[in-house]
Amino acid sequence: MITTRIQTTTRLFIATLALAAVGLGLTATPAADAAGLRNCVDVTGPQSGRVGCYEEVWADGVEYRMVFSNTRFTGATPSELDAFYLVAPQSDSPQGWPPNTFLHDHVVRDIPAGNGGSYSIRLQGIFVLCSGQGIVSGACVPSWTMVGENSLPFAESVNGQPLTSTEAIESAAAAGDILLSNLGPSAVIVGSITRGN
Question: pTM for the full model?
Fold first, then answer.
């Protein structure tokens, strides 16, 4: 019953995911702004999508700053995309917040160490939701979050562990405790992070 409800709700959101991506403020181009680089959540109105911005992200359990660039791909969606996971806040200071979006954090793969060829700046937005199995068993702690007019069970932790690395997220998904909902081509973004941030 819970699994069916979650899957139905997730399918309904596929049609409105473009709005979620815009709400995240991730459609920025690398134009200069006299005020300096700002948090994407703070960029609103006519500047949205026209100025460079940053957001905090988790990578291998550590918080970094990711700078976003042009996300308007022409032609086909790139075939090789890395994950840009959206999870429930992992600390008392969410990385995304209202009024422009909902409370959430971001998780990306390990950041490059000299870019050995496995790091991608092209990312695919993915919601990380507790599965029915995860909720019923108590393995996944949901943070019921309003996205649009529906409440989704964003994963806060699994088996008492935070979700601040892709390994933790992908392991929980393999165990069936969370669902990964790909947000589709409208949520393809370009972001760059370095260890110096």
Answer: 0.76
